[in-house]
Amino acid sequence: MRVRNGSCLLLPVFLVLSLALLAGCRGVASVGAELGTRTGVLDARQAESLRQTGELAERSMEDFTPEQEYFIGRAVAARVLEDYAVLDDPAAQAYLNNLGGVLALHSERPSLYQGYSFRLLDSDELNAFATPGGHIFITRGMARLAQTEDELAAILAHEIAHVQERHGLQAIRSSRVTAALTSAALTGAQLAGDDDLRELTDIFEDSIDDITRTLFVNGYSREFEREADDGAVAILERTGYRPEALSRVLERMDDEWDPQGPGFARTHPSPSSRIAELGLEPADSRSEARAERFSRFRAAL
Amino acid sequence: MLRIRTLPVLFLVLAVAGAGSVALAFERGDPGDVAVRSAELREAPGHLTAIRGHLDYGTRVEVRDRREGFLRVRSEAGEEGWLHPSALSRDPVILTGDGDDVERDADRDEIALAGRGFNEEVEERYRSERGLSFAPVDRMEAGGADPEDLRAFLEQGELHLPGGE
Fold first, then answer.
1. CATH number at residue B80
2. Which of A66, A78, A203 sits opposite B35 (nearest CB)?
3. What confidence tens digit (pLDDT) does each residue in A22-59 have?
4. ipTM score here?
5. Any B CB within 8 A of A97 CB
6. A135 to B137: CB separation less than 8 angstroms, yes or no
């Protein structure tokens, strides 16, 4: 990505803003500018620079529209599907879409720009992903860990909670403060020509890389994983599944836990620590109504 | 390097940053913009109730009523029905495609800022530069569950119907 703004005047401002933006509070730069002027720390020009820079940067951080979120999500989904094949079993895919669909209806964010969609990936790896656009993936290996529909629901509900909490976009936010402050948007460039489209595409690519790196390599923070587990419990309860199924399936993940191997172990806290934080004793589903259709699904794995 | 006299600002800014922001629920009379590609306007509160129409992304509506976690809204063109609050944005939705509707809502800088202008044009360039296929994503999105299938799945599994039903 090209950097157009080279003003050294903004160095202290940049540091202030970086910290303020990491704190995630809109309007902080304006308040900082006003306070800086009043206390004589900043002159009028510096204060205005802080205010303008802050407004631009804060908006770029906070104001991804649902449509932008969707296009970012689509590109992340394309990257996932570049690396993984989809399991060729329409009945299993339909079951997964129905299960994920009813869980999403009970989430705090049932309406997305393009809605939720779910795919079973033909891989023995233990993994599951969600994009900011509501594309949710689970590998055959991870799905096979679940012994009941409630346990499979718990895995999907965790991914839906990541979407609900907009964790994917925050992977961009936390790692791209510098880019946000030096982007085409900051310089107020007219986005009319090929150069501008190229610059936007570069920013887009960097954003997708941030998210895929988080999904595949670094993982979300422990706090985000805890939020996703808490969100999953709420979704399971509202839908009518046993929330203890999350602890049960985490227990099964713990048996397969290999931090050196591929998949979720590289990107998630240990299942045992997540069970401890959940505080829910693992328990099995007793539903016969769901047992038959789940066994049909499981036979396809 | 950061000069000593800038530190008070740093301190003050961080102190203010701790305040955070709180999202407020929609109230009767509030305006909102449709935040999904095609919002389903329903006859009654609920995700699985009958659909009476659709509103496009960015359509401005007014909230007329609230019940059972849903909002009754009316568009400027007079279309009325129930939708879930997550289909509505309190912030004005700035469109990023081509055409007059974009100019209606924002100048070009605002469009860039709203979301860096990520749209189909950017996706197309990204796709061609990377040699990446979006066809599997299109198929994935097209394969979503039918509302009647969801209702049957819930009932057969002795699960709860979503709010309002």
1. 2.30.30.40
2. A66
3. 444 444 445 445 555 555 555 665 555 555 555 554 54
4. 0.78
5. yes
6. yes
Contact B41, B81 (CB under 8 A): yes
Instruction: Judge whether B13 lies within some domain.
Output: no
CA distance A87 to A120: 6
Check whether residue B84 and residue B127 sit in a common domain.
Answer: no
Q: Is residue B155 part of a domain?
A: no
User: By the 8 A CB rule, do A29 and A54 touch?
Assistant: yes
Phi-psi region of A86 (alpha: psi -120 to 50; beta: other; left: phi over 0): beta
What count of CB pairs under 8 Å joins A to B?
A: 251
Q: CB–CB of B42/B50 below 8 Å?
A: yes
Clarify whether residues B35 and B68 are in a common domain.
yes
Instruction: Indicate whether B77 and B108 sit together in one domain.
Output: no
In a domain? residue B6? no
Q: Domain check: are B32 and B87 in the same one?
A: yes
* Minimal-distance CA residue of chain A relative to B84: A111
Contacts of B37 in chain A (CB under 8 A): 67, 70, 113-114
Mutate to test the interface with A, among B9, B130, B146 (most CBs of A within 10 A): B9
Q: What is the pLDDT of residues A274-300, one digit of tens each?
A: 999 999 988 887 788 999 999 999 999
Domain span including residue B109: 94-143
Same domain, B75 and B120: no
pTM score, two decimals?
0.79
- The DSSP 8-state label assigned to residue B1 in this structure reads -
**Secondary structure class of B105 (helix, strand, coil):** helix
B53 domain residue, yes or no = yes
